[in-house]
Hints:
This protein is an alpha+beta fold. The chain has a single domain (15-161), classed as NADH Oxidase, CATH 3.40.109.10. Helix content is 41%, strand content 15%. The protein is built from 7 helices and 4 strands, in the order ααβαβααβαβα. It is globular, with a radius of gyration of 17 Å. It starts with a helix and ends in a 6-residue tail after the last helix.
Amino acid sequence: xxxxxxxxxxxxxxxxxxxxxxxxxxxxxxxxxxxxxxxxxxxxxxxxxxxxxxxxxxxxxxxxxxxxxxxxxxxxxxxxxxxxxxxxxxxxxxxxxxxxxxxxxxxxxxxxxxxxxxxxxxxxxxxxxxxxxxxxxxxxxxxxxxxxxxxxxxxxxxxxxxxxxxxxxxxxxxxxxxxxx
Length: 181
């Protein structure tokens, strides 16, 4: 893949908020997406995540309802796949480094793996949306996630039924500087 191919992938990826609820995601595509996530980098190779993948139609509908609380994310009820991203303990090297540097590396690592997941979904012709607003207790109960674990994200995946939108981003000169702030 050259730069232009990767740029096109990034340009086409968007947060999709409408899915074909009658079209399941093929297992082979989902396995390739999860393999890309498995290979994502993390601080000290800690890999502080576990993915709970919901593909059962009824369970996905219930997960979508848990994500759609307070009127937010109503579209999630139509997503055929929910990838729940659970924070796991970092290894000792990452934990010690985080203490020294005042950073919680698992959150950074989970941001990286989420990016890998959604770009891999886009490369498979699928839409996705990273969700952080949901009823954590209800989703944990639905998916059998232990109460002492943090469920940080629900990444919904499916076949988008909306057209691509033009990306609106800040101009480069507002977010990039060289050699000083």
